[in-house]
Write a structure and sequence with these properties.
It is built from one helix and 18 strands. By secondary structure, the protein is mostly beta strands. The chain has two domains: 107 residues, 6 Propeller (Neuraminidase); 89 residues, Sandwich (Immunoglobulin-like), CATH 2.60.40. A hairpin with a 2-residue loop joins strand 1 and strand 2. The radius of gyration is 18 Å and the shape is globular. The relative contact order is 0.14.
């Protein structure tokens, strides 16, 4: 587990969970990253490592979007612990100790999680910035290795603290192209994120609401 300000994170065999109310309720924010038991959290940055999936991921927006830190690190193995010393973060792995500058991590890494299935699609909303409505397009693929012809799709909107502010889609959908409209007239101006989850595919995008 790890905590930063009022946000608590927990890793399990089923993925990563987040609580913003002192643990009274939990949201499943990264279901495809199983056995994420190692965590480092500080100043809005969360880094997680797995013992089953040999990966390390970083989020800078409370788990809305994720970056893969383990690209090119074939030697990594399972990640069992993190330790910060000065300006460096150390990770104890199955094959040794990994070291990287925290400055490099927080400035060079783009906070985007690549899609797990390239034939899913989530468009950038338009117009953007918007007031008060904007349009979002998304596509559900024909049957793939992971997907069946009817899939459960959720698209939710979050504020910059990772709090859910709207649910746009939460239902079974057949393959096809879809268009939805998001009306933010009850929200405050600012930056929001919308995220699609369907059958192991997760993608998030940023939008700006200006009254």
């Amino acid at each position: 587990m790890a905590a930063d300000d009022s946000v608590i994170y927990a890793g399990s065999s089923l993925g990563i969970y987040r609580s913003t109310d002192a643990g009274n309720s939990w949201e499943h924010i990264f279901p495809t990253f199983s056995y994420a038991y190692s965590m480092y959290c500080n100043d809005g940055i969360l880094i997680v490592g797995g013992t089953n999936i040999n990966k390390m991921y970083l989020t800078k927006d409370h788990g809305i979007t994720w970056s893969d830190l383990s690209t090119g690190m074939d030697f990594l193995g399972g990640v069992y612990t993190f330790c910060k010393d000065g300006d460096y973060l150390y990770a104890g792995t199955q094959s040794g100790v990994w070291k990287r500058s925290l400055f490099e991590i927080t400035t060079d890494v783009k906070n985007e999680k690549s899609s797990l299935l390239p034939d899913f699609y989530l468009s950038q909303n338009y117009p953007n910035p918007f007031n008060p409505s904007t349009t979002i397009n998304y596509s559900i693929p024909v049957e793939t290795l992971r997907a069946t012809s009817l899939q459960h799709v959720t698209i939710k909107v979050y504020d910059v603290l990772g709090r859910e502010v709207a649910t746009l889609v939460d239902e079974e959908k057949p393959a096809g192209n879809y268009e939805i409209t998001f009306n933010a007239n009850k929200l405050s101006s600012g930056i929001y994120y919308y995220r699609i989850i369907s059958n192991g595919f997760i993608e998030s995008k940023k939008m700006t609401f200006l009254k």
